[in-house]
């Protein structure tokens, strides 16, 4: 089975170390989200995986046949129509005009771009339509690995939700492997099978959460509950420079994974557990999770940044600092 494998990656710009001891493995069909504060090296890591930067120390092995990258800005050419922008990557591959036009049109339609939008120029499109066009341009290549560099960061909540749904549908249909970076924890919990948290100076992984329910089946309540569980961990809060969460007990313990239902209910022993990658530190159970896997906080206390008050029942594990 093809996979993207990163082992012992180190990177520096001049004398500043940006990444240190980074390892990960992304197999076919899985979505891995990397979250962390600005400046922690997320984009640098993705650019190294894409081959846009030279690897200085460590190893990046991309076993996929076709890789596509989606950046923060749509980067649509203003003098070309939406259809021609989508077809541009096929033109670069030497696909003849008739074939690339047909494929670009079919992909545009699949992502909600009608014939009017496909005939327009980028400055005539809304931000959401531009994002759809950029995603269509990436997917028309029929990649088996998609790298996402916060492409939905500038969209409002409604448009972002629409793009999430489109991406999930395409990922399920095509069996894509997706490596995405974001500073939005809720977005990561919405889309990913695994979430890894990065801290800065130097960039490194400090936490991992594995999500047992397929992304396409998750409810908003389920997403908010797991977002709260992740943001309750002291090492995660420290990475984002958030103040400590009042009332979290620091009792050592262990928990085993249990299935979680898509309506937000979670198993009695917790529903998130790490799956280590080659080269990772052995995961340790979060000290804030007791033996039965329940994060102990006062009933009215767990109010995370999104303003969601939830009772959390989840086991998460540390990947090493």
Which short descriptors sum up this protein?
alpha/beta, 11 strands, six-stranded mixed beta sheet, 30% helix, 321 residues, disordered C terminus, Rossmann fold
The stretches of 5 or more residues where confidence is low (pLDDT under 50) are 250-321
Strand line-up of the largest beta sheet: 5-6-7-3-8-9
Major sheet summary line? 6 strands, mixed
Number of helices: 9
Number of strands: 11
Strand percentage lies at: 15-25%
Apparent shape: globular
Provide the succession of SSEs: EEEHEEHHHHEHEHEEHHEE
Mean pLDDT: 79
Roughly how many Å apart are the termini? 30 Å
CATH class category name: Alpha Beta
> How many structural domains does the protein architecture include?
1
The CATH H-level superfamily is: P-loop containing nucleotide triphosphate hydrolases
Tell me the Rg in angstroms.
Answer: 20 Å
Report the CATH architecture. 3-Layer(aba) Sandwich
Structural class, please?
Answer: alpha/beta
Helix content: 25-40%
Q: What is the CATH T-level topology?
A: Rossmann fold
